[in-house]
Design goal:
Helices cover about 40% and strands about 15% of the residues. It has a single domain, classed as 3-Layer(aba) Sandwich (Collagenase (Catalytic Domain)), CATH 3.40.390.10. The longest helix has 18 residues. The protein is α/β, with parallel strands linked by helices.
């Protein structure tokens, strides 16, 4: 039984982790607290190398890792200056193991769930199609929640990718937010979206639900515990009413 949930801030993102923790506290029986960035609170000397080992060099190759000195130096700088990190995909399971090893031994038990909100993109390997898939969260201990994953993992409308490519061909850079929002039909989240905090609440609840019940996700679209594969599904599940399916409404729908 989960007695305590510790959420960790992601200061280089727009995610308001204290607000997420308050929302969670109102819905579960465990005590919810907030700490500063996990990679600061539980920093260990081997983390730069562990992150280097978890790098995904190719979306279609299972092997991970680049432990050349330059890469490890990059990871050291990313730990010190997280706002400079970006554009790298990490094996979420390897990162999870590294962060679990960084926890103090007395806090590794499953009665205390650690939820680092991360500013890094994480993924898992798909044996069914032989490629890496970006994820919003990786359940377990600690449970990883990726802010970039919120924007990048669920697929956006096809028109979004076409418009982005067209703009890049014409101007050489990414189109501004207002161009994408005006040119592409459909609702979706993009970097630093003001809806980020609200959307992450359900993903953090998923991490608690899994450890408490053993159920990974809900299979009903529109429930906050649903594992959305498209941005439209994410919007429906996390930002629109009702918040939960009838079964999970009984567990978590509290004011």
């Amino acid at each position: 039984m989960v007695e305590r949930v510790i959420c960790y801030r992601a200061p280089s993102t727009v995610a308001a982790v204290d607000e997420i923790a308050d929302w969670l506290q109102a819905r579960i029986d465990a005590d919810v607290t907030v700490r500063d960035r996990f990679l600061d609170v539980h920093r260990t000397d081997d983390l730069p190398e562990r992150f280097a080992e978890a790098r995904v060099p190719s979306p279609y190759e299972r092997e991970t890792g680049n432990t050349m000195l330059g890469t490890i130096r990059y990871e050291e700088r990313a730990l010190e200056n997280p706002e400079r990190e970006g554009g790298v995909l990490y094996d979420g399971v390897q990162v999870q193991r590294a962060l679990n090893a960084a926890l103090p031994e007395e806090e590794r038990g499953l009665e205390t769930l650690h939820v680092p909100i991360l500013d890094r993109a994480i993924g898992t390997w798909g044996d069914h199609d032989g490629r890496w898939h970006k994820r919003v969260n990786v359940l377990g201990q600690p449970a990883l929640v990726s802010v970039p994953g919120l924007y990048e993992a669920p697929a956006k409308p096809e028109a979004y990718y076409k418009e982005k490519q067209r703009h890049a061909l014409l101007s050489g850079d990414a189109p501004p937010r207002e161009v994408l929002e005006n040119q592409v039909e459909g609702d979706f989240l993009i970097d630093d979206d003001p809806r980020t905090t609200d959307a992450l609440k359900g993903y953090v609840l998923q991490t608690y639900h899994f450890l408490e019940t053993g159920e990974a996700f809900c299979d009903r679209e529109g429930c906050r515990l649903f594992n959305a594969h498209r941005q439209s599904e994410l919007i429906d599940a996390q930002l629109r009413d009702p918040a939960f399916c009838p079964a999970h409404d009984d567990l978590y729908a509290r004011s």
